[in-house]
UniProtKB/TrEMBL annotation:
Descriptive protein name: Pyridoxal phosphate-dependent aminotransferase
EC number: 2.6.1.-
Keyword list, A-Z: Aminotransferase, Pyridoxal phosphate, Transferase
Taxonomic path: Bacteria, Bacillati, Actinomycetota, Actinomycetes, Nakamurellales
UniProt xrefs under PANTHER family: FI04487P (PTHR43807:SF20)
Cofactor(s) the record lists: pyridoxal 5'-phosphate
Amino acid sequence: MSSPLVQRLRPFTETIFAEMSALASRTGAINLGQGFPDTDGPAAMLDIARMSIATGVNQYPPGPGIPALRQAISASRAADHGQQFDPDTDVLVTTGATEAIAAAMLAFVEPGDEVIALEPFYDSYQACIAMAQGVLRPVRLRQAEPGGRFALDPAELAAAVGPRTKLLLINSPHNPTGTVLEAAELQAIATLAIERDLIVVTDEVYEHLTYSGAVHTPLGTLPGMAERTVTISSAGKSFNVTGWKIGWACGPAPLVAAVRAAKQFLTYVSGAPFQPAVAHALMHEQQWVANLRSELESRRDLLCAGLSRAGFVVTRPQGTYFVVADFRPLLAPGEQLDGTAFCWSLPDRCGVVAVPQQVFYADQSAGAHLIRFAFCKQVAVIDAAVANLSRPVEGSQA
Ligand SMILES: *Cc1c(COP(=O)(O)O)cnc(C)c1O
């Protein structure tokens, strides 16, 4: 039987992450492919989740999220960025940032509407836009030179906006490039959104994970943006609990009500026992997050140094879990330029596993010379990867 899957989802059936994780366990190579932490979040937060289950917090919570969590979200946005969100109307708890993104696309995009997203993009964007029957218009972040920062060209962004453009789906700190959008880039996005009356959905799941003094400014804080912006966060990324799938969307009441309308028929509500735990973390674990940030920064530096010594041209990320490396200097003369083939050969070459950057592009030829490594792993794991990378390689057997 031919696949019963609808046409618009057929491009999204394969996942490279599973294949690369299988490659790692088969070869014993160190898995720096998928981006999830290998240590737990704050102990008190974990205790509250356990206690919640033990004390019967196990039935449907309120649809928008429990009041204590919505209040904690509102208070932390006010404390961190001076943003004002009414916990009753402007905050929605979701099943991870993933659901917030999906619900936003289903809420705002009519069939045929165009959505602009920064390419390369997080893997759920293309599929969610397709589910909403929208049309993706990629705007590519580009490097001025190998190893350079991936930057947004305002002219390219403006040129992508047309009569059917409905919304801008922005991600900063940006996975997979590690770029944190800077003032001029943010202002260009805001100016365009206001001029063309666009909704902006901004995925800020790495909002606390910025390095070397890079400053994350939420797009919703720019003048004229609060009334058109939905800001998405994730407890998974901020508190090392990616398996809990608690995220949230903040914005003006009409936009949040629209996202809530879609969310209620996707999952109805989200993880009851985790919500009081995340409320605690938002109110009391800022120091834990600050430590996480500085630990990740030093792991970034370890891995970047190891990759450079091994011959990669490394883009030093300003934020996120990821470092992007250009592998062209490691190719033998005549060897094909194909990130996926290179990743298959990486366990033999270097004893590590990465993912090809090209899977994050609509036009996969664009990222063919790049691969992505995750550094959200224990120092011992990064050390072992760096040791493998510095081992002289006697020809590839791949
Ligand atoms: C991990 C990630 C998400 C998904 O967050 P969850 O809370 O796990 O659903 C969304 N966007 C980006 C850019 C991510 O890296």
